[in-house]
Amino acid sequence: MGLIKTILYIVFFMYAFKFLAKLFAPFLIKKVVNKMQEKAEAQFRNQPPKSTVKEGETIIDKAPAKDAKGSKTVGEYVDFEEID
User: Fold this and answer.
1) Higher pLDDT, residue 49 or 27
2) For residues 59 and 53, is the Cβ–Cβ distance under 8 A?
3) What is the three-class DSSP state of 33?
4) Which of 41, 65, 75, 84 is deepest in the core (most CB within 10 A)?
């Protein structure tokens, strides 16, 4: 008797969850989409104004570190052979 009761509870809660999900899912999805849209709009508003750099002009924001040393090991050499 306890096994049947447990199975009936599981089935009842499963159908109740499905019903509530169908009822509240559109509301939750709409809320998430609106929040993402607000974040995107805020990010767009907070963009710095376009700089007065002319097209083709090169700007260096940061000079490379003088202590940087190149690595002598480039990688593993792989010899490819053509197969007929």
Assistant:
1) 27
2) yes
3) helix
4) 41
